[in-house]
Amino acid sequence: MREGSMNDTLASLGAAVAKEKGAAVERASMTDFECPPYDQDVELSKGIPAGAKALHDKLSAADGFMISSPEYNASMSGVLKNTIDWVSRFRPQPFNGKQAFLMAASPSMTGGKIGLWALRQPLEHLGARVYPDMFALAQAHRGFDSSGRIADTKLQNWFETTIECFIDLVEASKHYPHLKKQWVEFLGERPDKETTRVELGETAAV
Fold first, then answer.
1. Backbone dihedral region of 64: left (phi > 0), alpha (psi from -120 to 50 degrees) or beta?
2. What pairing do the DSSP bridges indicate for beta strands 198-202 and 180-184?
3. What are the angstrom distances between the C-alpha of 196 and each of 72, 90, 143?
4. 111 with 105: CB under 8 angstroms?
5. 65: nearest Cα among 170, 157, 140
6. pLDDT at residue 179 tops 80
7. Which terminus of the chain is less hemmed in, N or C, by CB atoms within 10 Å?
8. How far apart are the first and last CA of the chain?
9. pLDDT in tens, 11-44
10. How many CB atoms lie within 10 A of CB 76?
11. Which ranges in the chain belong to alpha helices (H)?
12. Of residues 200, 168, 161, the one with CA closest to residue 184
């Protein structure tokens, strides 16, 4: 959420690269989706907060999404997880069937990839199709040049070509005429009323 953070810089670069590759991109920040800590009493008394509704609407309108997430104590940001939890309360929830690309920038030698593995879990549980390759920029405190690009030209090229491949996948899923995604929240468990959510979504318009 910090202005000028390493992940904010990486997100801006990712948006710029996606536009260069022909995608229509809407850039957003977690500050656009402010939510209180999830509390079902709050949900029942006041409804789902406006910040979660804003993210829900953006996800519903998009063919895919990209997240640049910091790593906190070998996991994801608590702010991001809390927002995902709020958005998952919509019926239907908007992550199902969406293509997702994850990236991180960190001063560490692993580049925040441990946090990205943690982030994959709730997104994949909610039915998002998370791209297999995740970009993690190690030693990111000295990883960008003065223009906001990745200083190492080979890494910059890998970043660009990976995003291009992701965009190709999003485009393919968008135009495949019969691709559907059934999401069963607890697939394989006994279908009790209290735990059953089944939603059928389309990854593309027919």
1. beta
2. antiparallel
3. 32, 14, 45
4. yes
5. 170
6. no
7. C
8. 38
9. 999 999 999 999 999 999 999 999 999 999 999 9
10. 27
11. 6-20, 40-46, 50-61, 78-87, 113-125, 153-175
12. 200
Distance CA 155, CA 148 (A): 13
Nearest partner of 123 among 168, 69, 74, 171, judged by Cα: 69
Tokens standing for 87?
Answer: 């958005």
User: What are the tokens at 17?
Assistant: 């690269």
Structure tokens at 85: 């939890």
Q: Name the pTM for this structure.
A: 0.90
Residue type, 205: A
Q: Which residue has the tokens 């996991």?
A: 75
Q: Which domains does the chain have, with CATH numbers?
A: 6-177 (3.40.50.360)
Q: What's the CA gap between 63 and 140, in Å, rounded?
A: 29
Q: Which amino acid is at 148?
A: G
